[in-house]
Amino acid sequence: MSEKNRFEADGMERRLDGLDRPVFRAFPAFSWEKLLIALIVIVAVISRFAILGERVMSHDEVNHVVPAYTLSTGGGYAHDPVTHGPFQFHMLALSYFLLGDNDFAARVPAALFSVAAVLVVLFGYRRYLGRTGALIGGLMMTISPLILFYGRYTRNEAFIELFMVLTLWTTLRYLEKRDEKSLLILSAVTALQFVTKEVSYIYTAQLLIFCGILFLGDVWRLRWDSDGEKLRKMGMIALAAFFALLGAALPKLLGGEGDPTTAIKLASLGVAAFGGLILLFVIVSTVRKFSWKPFRDMPSFDLIVFVMALILPQLTAMPVSLAGWDPLDYSANGMLKTGAVMTVLFALSIAVGVWWNRRVFLRGAMIFYLIYLVFYTTMFSNGQGFFTGVVGSLGYWLSQQEVKRGGQPLYYYAAVILPIYEFAALFGTILAIRFGLKRRSFSGRPGAERVSETIRMAGISAPEETAGDDSRESFFSLVEISGEEAWAAEVEAVEIDPSDYGALESALIGEIDSLEPAEIPVPPATVPALALFLYWGLTALIAYSIAGERMPWLGVHIALPLVLSGAWGFGYLFETLDWKKLMSAEGGAAAALTIVALYALGGVLSPFGTGLAPFASTDLAGLKATGLFACSAVALVISGFYLVRTLRRMGGKSVSGFYALFIGIALLVLQARTAFQSSFVNYDQANEYLVYAHSSAAPKVVLREIEEIAARTGVGKAIRVAYDNDARYPYWWYFRDYTQKLDFNEAATRTLRDYDIIIANTAKDAKLLPIVGDAYYRSEYMRLWWPNQDYFRVTPGGVWNAIVNPQMRRAILDIWLDRDFGRYAKLVGSGSMSLETWEPSAKMVVYMKKDLLRRMWKYGDAAATVDEGGTASFPDEKFTPLNPVFSFGEAGTEPGKLNRPRNLAIAPNGDVYVMDTDNERVDVFNGEGVFRFSFANEDHGGFNQAWGIAIDEDGSVFIADTWNHRMLKFSAAGDYELEWLANDPTGATISFYGPRGVAIDGRGRVYVTDTGNKQVMIYDREGKFLSKFGSVGLGPGEFDEPVGIAVFADQYLAVADTWNQRVQVFDISGETVLPAPVYAFEVFAWYSQSMDNKPYLTFTPKGDLLFSDPEAGLVWEYSVSGELIRSFNGAGGGIDMLSMPVGLATDRDGAVWLVDALGNRVNRFILP
């Protein structure tokens, strides 16, 4: 070797052996590499286990932790595809057994598997990433925000994380070694994927397609008669693939979003089968030409046949669906059909596997199905689990593709999740692609990256192709030492362990004399490591972007291969940099000057981002902007000048490497910060995009309060708690062992009064308030929130605005860097981006019984005093179970059917006019409920949520057309007569605002509740304005949401003052048009301000007042003096019968007619 080459190689050896140097001379075996590995492992463990149990169990976690708890307590487990495979439930049950059932124990399995994935990359991938690349890969796995967050989350992703890196590792290992052990490991890992989550089908498809690409490359290299023959065969394969894809796409192309017809399914199957026939022809003709032997010698062929034979029965749901059957049909007939298909596929699987390699396949299949049986049958205690696993998993997954949960845009991962969280991995992947293209190193020799660079730096060249078989290659065939031909000719072809870096480097740098010929190392066969990582990342991005469900946790499956390809890119960068120059004074100066120049550039640009351009103003703010710009510009010019001089001395190649390293380190640091923020700062907040339905911290706050109350009152877990179907997440888990708990759905009944604590969605508040009355304290909390979803509305114009608008750029940077939405909220004019006002969100209401809290203070703190006003009390509802004597109506849009009717009126001839609000018409029935006709006012603008209706003594029909903000008059036959607006001559009321109620007295005065304007308007029968009264307030004659209105004997006018929760009665007997307030009485009703809770009133013939309480399902009867007489259910029956009585009226016989908007019925009652 020349002196020059020997000198350069000596320098390379010193640089590359830095990882092998001991950290302490006293401990020579403890190298820097081992220290770095130890630090990465320690950080991985701490980051996965620190405060692991603090975060509230999220919505999706609850679906896993509760069934696992049931399993751990002896309740068994039955596989349900909705919650994915059984593996996680068994791991959680084991964790509960060892550590107890708590939040920490529930997340321990995910944390352990996530750490194990880091270890696999650190130690298993050294051969495919190089030592430096493996260290960087372990570090990137540790600080990946997605991988870290879901390594602390009770979902399947952490388990799949480990199984994926093992899948890629075993694939590369088999391509390198072609040993049975690799296939058996792959069999076990594939089985674990299938017992964990349905993404196993995507993983297996990715693996088979990649091996298929390798196989085509191997086939291309066979000795064909001509290039034309090769091209024809490849063209036919491409044609077969086209028809297969076309067949798969036909149902969507021809059937649209709905279920495809049988004809479309048959056409799809026929097109795909035609592609299969073309492929079969290619296979048969190629095998006839070459025989099976060259194919059996291809490792890609082995992997395709082995994996396909293993998982073929798992595809049973596909042919079952194509046959028009339901794979989720678990009836005897359904299972018989599906079982027949499954049997055929099992037989085909065994036949293919045995034909390929009987011994290896049977051993692999035994491993696969032993794992499969153990988990899906729950240790052989649930025989049907095997069937639901083979058929139900894929069947359910296919059925869910049309659900499109979350409805995320196609660019969700590529433009939202990855740029926000995995930017360092993306940059490393870009480096990997660049280096791969430049060096043609998408395939490489395991463990030889450092060696190949040593060869290059020492002036040694290697040919592009190497001779020899897959496991043996001569050293001379790999390297050609310039100027040393005679020496090289004496080197014999020998073999060594390719991971023996030191021996190989010694041979390359001139110490060949000290080695015997048998000790000279030979690098191993080429494997497509980088190609596999890049392919896996790209196909994962495509697959999960077009899949039906696009959720943040699926980003883990895209991030993992990006981390590996990024580690490859960073590793190559680190190993090829000229560290001598970078670590010199020039390198340090370049780094410092770059930082100064960047800050100076920021100072130059910052005034433009604030809207204060320099030199544009002489006020204080303008002078500050000018000063900042001037100082920064000077600093930028000076630092830029010296930076350019320094970089010229370093040389072009060193400069590009220096800045790649500079950017890479900066991004790795920022990504570590992002991971820390998302997992340890914002883990219970909505400003992260990592979780979809994300629990706030409040459910645990409430839980701690309940536990304290239970402890201080001495009842412990016997405290009586009730929660609805929304609060079930997370309280299904947190109340798992409470002995007196109630899980109720929509039906909030008065049995809830037996419970000390009631937790529900705030949407149920209106139904709960009439039940709890004054007996409970009420608190409201944030239960669940979703990430900001403005990215749904991204447009090219919006993107351009974000680029050119400096304030928007700054706002987006705030979100990207700190998850701070403050600046962005101001720019878009949103008031719902602070944690207090966040939308979208779901709140919960918590009711705590006052008597319970009194007991807590009495027994828990003798010195405390209690306001006696807090004593629990329920209103005396004087409920009378009444049933309607007559009822008619059914839901629908056809003539005579009802759709959320809101009111009714009784005509002088006994006909019933029903305000069929959501059908936007009036339906007319006779007194026996026979439909007569309807009218919809189509020629005069139709109705828009019309609620109010009244009928005059001559049969004229008056309608309050609520959201058209007008009054209408029709004849008894439904003919349009006139309409009017507010018609206020004073001009004070320009327009009605959502009028909802109308009543007519014997003098022809028409009273209209102008609900939104908080007043009552008075007109004559022709719409002429007479007077008005009322304003917003609590005093006599003041209103807050007046709705129902009724007249009695031209003497009294009653108004439902809804939000003031009272009825006001006015005297209209005088000659003056303006009514005089008589009295008002409060009611235990109308708690909600929802759109449904709009009550109406009517008088009985003797002057008692009836009014509806829609969300309580009740009708209340009061005397004219305000004394409660009775209440009854609007649908009849018990007090908790589901109903929503709204409009009501009495006929001449004293019978009460009302509409039940919930039941789409009209009910007639006879009062006792």
Question: How would you summarize this macromolecular structure in one to three sentences?
Answer:
This protein is an alpha+beta fold and 1168 residues long. The strands form 9 sheets. Strands 5-9-10-8-6-7 form a 6-stranded mixed sheet.
Describe the structure.
The protein has 36 helices and 34 strands. It starts with a helix and ends with a strand. Strand 1 (22-24) and strand 2 (27-31) form a beta hairpin. Helix content is 48%, strand content 14%. With 1168 residues, the chain is of the alpha+beta class.
Features:
1168 residues; alpha+beta; six-stranded mixed β-sheet; four-stranded antiparallel β-sheet; 36 helices; globular
Describe the secondary structure blueprint for this structure.
Elements: H1 3-16, E1 22-24, E2 27-31, H2 32-49, H3 59-72, H4 87-99, H5 103-124, H6 126-143, H7 145-150, H8 157-177, H9 180-194, H10 199-220, H11 227-255, H12 262-290, H13 293-296, H14 299-311, H15 317-322, H16 332-376, H17 384-400, H18 412-421, H19 423-439, H20 449-457, E3 460-461, H21 475-478, E4 480-481, H22 485-489, H23 501-508, H24 529-546, H25 555-576, H26 579-582, H27 585-609, H28 620-650, H29 652-681, E5 694-695, H30 698-713, E6 721-724, H31 728-734, E7 741-744, E8 757-761, H32 765-772, E9 776-785, H33 796-804, H34 806-818, H35 822-828, E10 841-849, H36 850-860, E11 886-888, E12 903-906, E13 912-916, E14 921-925, E15 931-935, E16 948-951, E17 957-961, E18 966-970, E19 976-980, E20 997-1000, E21 1006-1010, E22 1015-1019, E23 1025-1029, E24 1042-1048, E25 1052-1057, E26 1062-1067, E27 1076-1082, E28 1097-1099, E29 1105-1109, E30 1114-1118, E31 1124-1129, E32 1141-1146, E33 1152-1156, E34 1161-1165
Parallel strand pairs: 6-7, 6-8
Antiparallel strand pairs: 1-2, 3-4, 5-9, 8-10, 9-10, 11-34, 12-13, 13-14, 14-15, 16-17, 17-18, 18-19, 20-21, 21-22, 22-23, 24-25, 25-26, 26-27, 28-29, 29-30, 30-31, 32-33, 33-34
Helix pairs in contact: 1-20, 2-5, 2-6, 3-4, 3-31, 4-5, 5-6, 5-8, 6-25, 8-9, 8-25, 9-16, 10-14, 10-24, 11-12, 14-16, 16-17, 19-25, 19-29, 20-23, 24-25, 25-29, 27-28, 30-36, 33-34, 34-35
